[in-house]
Write a structure and sequence with these properties.
alpha+beta
Length: 205
């Protein structure tokens, strides 16, 4: 039997080789993952601007979003040095945003006026998701106690939920307020594997 080399065979072999080469190339680049899609990769220094406009790394996935932007939005890096950030939320009344550094047990605040980032709540009891309700009160999911809380305007804290049908929650993760005053939140099965707080045998709800 003789091996016959045909144009079709060469094309088929090349097509089969492309995924393997792409995989190998990806493995070789694992040490320096791309953080953006722009080419050449941009430098993300504090307050750095992209070299072209509009910012190529701002992606409009839904065309309907184009009705609300003017294509001058820019990605800024406001701070570094955190462990595991989650739960960004904007306070329209205070004109600041907050976010959680879950592992480091701190909620940080970013001031819009001067760009200052500072500790806002420490300890945060490993807060994860955050939001603000329609009265401007902060809502948070606390991993440590596996509960959903609200911070009142006088600084007091109210526990909104810490159990369901008499059983403790698993690990409230994200939440959103509703205009009717209710708070919707997720409770995924992380309770048994939480790296902070009180892990146990998480049960589905």
């Amino acid at each position: 039997m003789t091996n016959r080399l045909t144009r079709r065979g060469v094309m088929a072999g090349s097509a089969a080789l492309i995924p393997a080469l792409a995989y190998a190339q990806g493995k070789a680049q694992l040490g320096t993952p791309r953080s953006v899609i722009s080419e050449p990769p941009r430098e993300f220094g504090l307050r750095a601007q992209p070299s072209i406009s509009p910012d190529p790394d701002v992606l409009h996935i839904d065309p309907g979003f184009n009705n609300f932007v003017i294509s001058q939005e820019v990605i800024h890096r406001v701070a570094t040095g955190f462990h595991f950030t989650e739960g960004p939320a904007w306070s329209s009344e205070g004109q600041y945003s907050i976010f959680s550094d879950v592992k480091n047990d701190t909620i940080y605040r970013y001031l819009w006026d001067n760009g200052e980032v500072s500790a806002f709540r420490k300890p945060s009891f490993n807060s994860n998701g955050n939001s603000f309700d329609y009265q401007g009160r902060q809502l948070s999911c606390q991993d440590f106690f596996r509960r959903v809380v609200r911070w009142e305007v006088d600084g007091a804290m109210t526990v909104l939920a810490d159990n369901f049908e008499g059983k403790p929650l698993n690990s409230p993760n994200d939440l959103a307020p509703h205009p009717d005053g209710s708070v919707w939140f997720t409770d995924p099965l992380y309770g048994a594997v939480l790296a902070e707080g009180h892990p146990d045998e998480g049960e589905g709800r």
